[in-house]
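Pilot study result, target chain (404 residues):
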Amino acid sequence: MLTGLSSAVRATAIAAAAMLGCRGCMKREVGLAKPLTGVLVVAIEQAVAAPFASCRLADAGARVIKIERPEGDFTRGYDGAIRGESTYYVWVNRGKESVVLDFRKAEDAALLQSLISRADVVIQNLGPGAAERGGFGSEKLRAARPELITCDITGYGETGPMKDMRAYDLMVQAESGIAYVTGSPSEPGRVGVSACDVATGMYAHAAILEALVRRGQTGEGASIHVSLFESMADWMTVPLLTYEHAGRDWPRTGLGHPLIVPYGAYHTRNGSVLVSVQNHREWQRFCEFVLENTAVVEDPRFATNQDRTRNKEELNIIIDAVMSTLTLEEAIQRLSCADLAYARVNDVAALSRHSQLRRASVDTPAGPVDIVAPPATFRRETRDLGAVPALGQHTAAVRSEFAE
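Predicted structure:
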């Protein structure tokens, strides 16, 4: 059997067993626990980016000990929409243990070092320089324990003139240019959710998993760094390359696409429908079944996607003239007959009752709450989600367990 190994080492051994034909051994082991069972994560975190990453590690079975200040992670105070609990905190802190520590106190600083000495992964996204001042900078930790995986999350990176600046989601949306390419033609707009935080948390989560796999193969840990700005810069690659190589600014198009036409929202008599035409076959079907005007296919102004993009205003006049006479239901019927992609332009209320929305239940200090289910599913596996902790709920137990 493969018990007694770290989860990453065990995963590698399972794969090797499968390659050697030890299928019975593999099946028994897979059924024992979630993939990251046995991995200890110490998360000195706040806000959204780091908690998002550690939450996904907890979903996979890692033990995540979340270190909070005496006043708690400040997202606890963002709102009280869930019977007094914060929507943000409930979203990204399930499955964790909450431990309140004040690093200025010698006893608490010692307990944190004891936790770190047994950890597999340490994540932190405090303000610039705070980890080093607290005695848990990644360079120091890795020097003492090369097998440790550290993940530092910053706003603007570890070098450059802005490395010491504080950063939050909306600031980075503005600095990275994503707000500039979002909104209407008349003005920029904020992406309506915490895009920078979520992207950074996802990149951090993926990098930590890579590091765990490599450690299972080599025994060596990793020093990971992810910044909000670099995460958004990656998302901005296409507008950036378009500017640098073609000299074109990336236009704001509202519910439209800068490079594909028709690809956007059109108004019907009782609502809007978003239409996408990706290739010439779809363009032919759009003209035949939706516009009911095959002559448009032969119009040289609209022969290719690049032609349609150059002559978007003229084409939209033709499309609007048809769509405005239809009900939303009639437009959807035509789009379905044409086998084209379409979407309703839903509000949050419509999302709440959407037929495709999967939900999961988590326990919170205010009672069970239905949340959006994790997007990644593992077929033929059932994974329960851990509870959202009250502030300091696990402090006493962790002190008892890890006190030296």
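One observation from the pilot: The mean pLDDT is 92. A full batch analysis is planned for the follow-on phase.
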